[in-house]
């Protein structure tokens, strides 16, 4: 009996894996070049008249082209300097409030930047705490150098941000205006939904249960959670908030056992596995753990 994978997708599992990878980065970094690669690869994979060797060469060439392009893209962002930043889009699910300090990730042109600001009133603090949407901010700002490690075996904050594709830090001096913005693609819609779920969990559950749920379900670690990490470690429950290889292996074995015993076969397991992998990769990318110590709608008026 044919599995669902071979019945509905006339491609080999390895071809499907590469297809998933290209699709993921096409959603993460929308680009015309990646779209052309994706369409061409789908057409070639579905063409049964090609021999196995030709398909193998096509798969390898596609993967290498994609990796070279992605590496070149990363280097170009890392080497370019920014200055005089006046307009940014604030990522909703990266917002962190610590007293009167606001920290978040933002989009500036094609860059992802780290922003810090001092909140001037309680109204501003409540607004950002309850915000669920993408925001477009017009600001006066100062570009700052990202702190690197200062001693041997010290924490390299710059390298940590580099792994998150962040190479620039901005200090907001003043906010001139702010307006709502709609998500531009599916990844941004996921980020907005995640922010809505985080705010909802903090509203309906008492402390510290809301912190546990936000950390376990959405990977959101706020400042209050970071302050209690030592307590969780002493109680021996810190491992509940970390995903180890044992947890992943146990989950995959249970999933494989339940699926392969059904009439769908192992092909369905491969499809489910890579779907879960993509979703986990998306939400894992949205996790924001700041270890540093220290079409628009109607504009809001309390920054005027």
Produce the secondary structure layout:
Elements: H1 4-8, H2 13-28, H3 32-46, H4 52-79, E1 87-90, E2 96-98, E3 101-108, E4 111-118, H5 122-130, E5 134-144, H6 157-162, E6 168-181, H7 186-204, H8 209-218, H9 223-227, H10 229-235, H11 245-260, H12 266-285
Parallel strand pairs: 4-6
Antiparallel strand pairs: 1-3, 1-5, 2-3, 3-4, 5-6
Helix pairs in contact: 2-3, 2-12, 3-4, 7-8, 11-12
Q: What does this protein structure show overall?
A:
This protein is of the alpha+beta class. It has two domains: 1-79; 82-304, no CATH class. It has twelve helices and six strands. It has helices at residues 4-8, 13-28, 32-46, 52-79, 122-130, 157-162, 186-204, 209-218, 223-227, 229-235, 245-260, 266-285; strands spanning 87-90, 96-98, 101-108, 111-118, 134-144, 168-181. A five-stranded mixed β-barrel has the order 1-3-4-6-5. α11 (245-260) runs antiparallel to α12 (266-285). The radius of gyration is 22 Å and the shape is globular. The model is unreliable at 286-304 (pLDDT under 50).
Order of helices and strands: HHHHEEEEHEHEHHHHHH
DSSP strand count:
6
With helices defined by DSSP (H or I, 4 residues minimum), what is the helix count? 12
- Radius of gyration (CA) equals 22 Å
Low-confidence stretches: 286-304
Major β-sheet profile: 5 strands, mixed, barrel
Total discrete domains: 2
Provide the β-strand percentage band: 15-25%
The main sheet orders its strands as: 1-3-4-6-5
In terms of quaternary structure, the protein is: single chain
| First and last CA, distance | 67 Å
Q: Mean pLDDT, as a whole number?
A: 74
Structural class: alpha+beta
- The general outline is globular
Helicity, as a percent range: 40-55%
């Amino acid at each position: 009996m044919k599995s669902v994978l071979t019945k509905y997708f006339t491609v080999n599992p390895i071809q499907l894996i590469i297809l998933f990878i290209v699709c993921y980065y096409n959603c993460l970094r929308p680009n015309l070049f990646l779209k052309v690669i994706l369409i061409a690869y789908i057409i070639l994979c579905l063409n049964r008249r090609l021999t196995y060797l030709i398909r193998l060469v096509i798969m390898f060439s596609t993967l290498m082209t994609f990796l070279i392009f992605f590496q070149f893209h990363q280097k170009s962002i890392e080497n370019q300097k920014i200055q005089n930043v006046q307009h940014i889009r604030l990522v909703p699910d990266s917002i962190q409030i610590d007293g009167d300090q606001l920290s978040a990730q933002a989009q500036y042109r094609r860059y992802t930047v780290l922003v810090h600001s001092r909140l001037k009133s309680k109204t501003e603090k409540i607004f950002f705490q309850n915000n669920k949407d993408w925001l477009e901010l017009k600001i006066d700002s100062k570009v700052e150098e990202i702190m690197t490690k200062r001693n041997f075996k010290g924490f390299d904050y710059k390298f940590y941000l580099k792994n998150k594709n962040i190479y620039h830090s901005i200090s907001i001096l003043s906010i001139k205006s702010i307006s709502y913005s709609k998500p531009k693609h599916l990844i941004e819609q996921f980020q907005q939904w995640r922010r809505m779920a985080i705010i909802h969990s903090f509203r309906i559950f008492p402390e510290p249960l809301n912190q546990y749920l936000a950390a376990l379900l959405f990977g959101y670690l706020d400042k209050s959670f970071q302050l209690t990490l030592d307590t969780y470690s002493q109680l021996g429950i810190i491992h509940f908030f970390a995903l180890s290889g044992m947890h992943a292996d146990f989950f995959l074995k249970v999933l494989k056992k339940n699926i392969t015993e059904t009439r769908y076969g192992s092909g369905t397991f491969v499809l489910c596995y890579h779907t879960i992998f993509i979703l986990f990769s998306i939400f894992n990318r949205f996790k924001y753990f700041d270890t540093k110590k220290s079409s628009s709608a109607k504009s809001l008026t309390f920054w005027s």
